[in-house]
Specification:
- By secondary structure, the chain is of the alpha+beta class.
- The chain contains eight helices and 18 strands.
- The protein binds flavin mononucleotide.
């Protein structure tokens, strides 16, 4: 299968499917000397793990990661880092009813159309479990970025029609509710909305917002590898993502230039040379201009559709070409968003860390500085 490799310098190659023996990733291009242990990765995987609340699939998985290579005496060696997570709760019989039937909204029909054959157990490679490998690799990217003062933080912006209010935004709150919403009141409203929705055997979608701080200006390549283009690709590669925005995003289409432009002013630089630097007065652009980071916060949003697998009867067809009705049993997330928060965060971290490494070769004066010239 093509398309399981991502990145230019920090390159990841993921493998594994929902009901195979496990899932994993090889991370190549991570600089040597980064302190790294399994716990650094496990804390990210635990945020993605199923079975943590009634709003996520009941599948019980430990999702325990093992580092197989690339780390010696607690530090990365610069060689490929192989990570593995074994599957332990594969109840294949839960999926026997979808063996010959296409689930509306899922990838069954397109897998068959493309390959003529598919691993129907839990969606195979199109399962949410595929994201384990990205999260594990992205945890390393986040650690690398952290060592450079760059932080990436995602959270739930909305659940169905319930959106957080900026006036009540409290990042600590996201760790206290099961939806990762940084607004206590909205989280409570969203929980009752979900309970009603689940009682009707339905599913819903929502929006994950992600903020990157501490990234200096100049990361990203100006033409085909724009930072915003790379982030859009990263987000659209996550299952169920149907929309993506940077900064004001689609609202910018309705704004006037005089409101949408972010003016500049000179400000004190934080310990860097020169001591004063240009900063933006506002951030409608969301931290990216001309495909390159502009030094302000990068703000992006990914819109997730409702979980395709629902227990209501739905019209579909069989592989043999007969009309039929499907009611999906199995165990599914009634909403993907809470588990996808860390997926968005780690895909953003992977993309930014990779583009930051790519950017290291863009200036001769900095290369000369490295060689002491
Ligand atoms: C973290 C995560 C968990 C998911 N869980 C489920 C699930 O339990 N049931 C389901 O039908 N789809 C689930 N999905 C969505 C499907 O993987 C996705 O909708 C499907 O592959 C079709 O791809 P598309 O929606 O991008 O077109 C999940 C996606 C993610 C990212």
């Amino acid at each position: 299968m093509a398309g399981s490799i991502y990145g230019t310098i920090l390159k990841i190659s993921t493998w594994g499917e929902s009901h195979g023996k496990g899932v994993g990733v090889v991370v190549d291009g991570c600089p040597a000397g980064l302190p790294l242990c399994e716990e650094d990765i496990q804390i990210y995987l635990n945020r993605r793990k199923p079975g943590q609340s009634k709003f996520t699939t009941a599948r019980r998985e430990g999702d325990v990661v093992e580092i197989l290579s690339g780390v010696f005496e607690g530090k990365t060696t610069g060689t490929p880092i192989a990570l593995e997570v074994r599957n332990t709760d594969q109840r294949s019989h839960d999926y026997s009813n979808i063996m010959d039937v296409y689930r509306p909204g899922h990838a069954d029909y397109t897998f068959d159309a493309k390959y003529g054959f598919r691993d129907y157990r839990g969606g195979g490679r199109s399962s949410g479990r595929e994201t384990i490998a990205r999260v594990a690799a992205g945890a390393i990217a986040a650690k690398l970025l952290g060592s450079l003062g760059v932080q990436v933080q995602a959270y739930t912006r909305s659940v169905g029609p319930v959106e957080i209010e900026d006036g009540r935004f409290d990042i600590e709150e996201m760790w206290k509710n099961r939806l990762y919403m940084p607004d206590k009141k909205s989280a409570a409203e969203a929980e009752s909305y979900l309970e009603q929705m689940m009682a009707g055997k339905d599913s819903c979608g929502g929006v994950v917002e992600c903020v990157v701080t501490g990234l200096p200006a100049g990361v990203g390549e100006p033409v085909f590898d724009k930072l915003d283009a790379a982030l859009a690709k990263a987000m659209f590669s996550i299952g169920a993502v149907k929309g993506f925005e940077i900064g004001d995003g689609f609202a910018a289409a309705k704004a006037l230039g005089s409101r949408n432009n972010d003016g500049f002013q000179m400000a004190q630089a934080d310990g860097r040379q020169p001591s004063r630097k240009a900063v933006k007065c506002t951030n409608h652009a969301g931290g990216i201009l001309g495909g390159m980071s502009d030094g302000s916060r990068i703000i992006m949003r990914a819109a997730f559709k409702p979980t395709p697998s629902i227990a209501q009867p739905q019209q579909t067809v069989t592989r043999q070409g007969e009309d039929t009705v499907i009611e999906i049993k199995g165990r599914h997330d009634p909403i993907i968003v809470p588990r996808a928060v860390v997926v968005v965060e780690t895909m953003a971290a992977l993309t930014i860390a990779d583009m930051l490494l790519v950017s290291m070769t863009s200036r001769l004066d900095r290369i000369q500085e490295f060689f002491g010239r």
